[in-house]
Specification:
three-stranded mixed beta sheet, 5 helices
Length: 115
């Protein structure tokens, strides 16, 4: 786990909301830019680009950049191990943009069976 980025640089998992509750942690990416197969129609009606969700561009962009690093899965496993959430909701916004990214989340899920 030596590749794990120090948690002093900030957590990648955010807190839930009033509907989810703050005990549920979330991980989102920017809408539209990470959605494979997007169309003009889905872009025009995408809920994740409106209201409160539309204002979260900066943290979502930070998370996208982190997700592309080879050590992303190690960082997430470390954060989940430290924070011990019961539930993590993946992609309130954004999408699984590549097969490699899906494999990272599969490794995270396998390493964190209690979450």
């Amino acid at each position: 786990m030596s590749e794990v980025v120090s948690s002093s640089s900030g957590f990648l998992l955010g807190r839930g909301n009033r509907k989810l509750g703050t005990q549920i942690l979330t991980f989102s990416l920017p809408a539209v830019s990470t959605c494979p197969g997007k169309s003009e129609m889905c872009e025009s009606v995408c809920y994740a680009t409106r209201g409160h969700m539309g204002m979260a561009i900066r943290p979502f962009t930070k998370r996208l950049k982190a997700s592309k690093k080879g050590s992303f899965h190690l960082r997430m496993i470390d954060e989940i191990s430290r924070r011990k959430p019961r539930t993590v909701r993946i992609h309130v916004s954004g999408d699984f943009y590549s097969a490699g990214y899906v494999r990272k989340w599969a490794a995270i899920a396998a390493a964190c069976p209690d979450t």
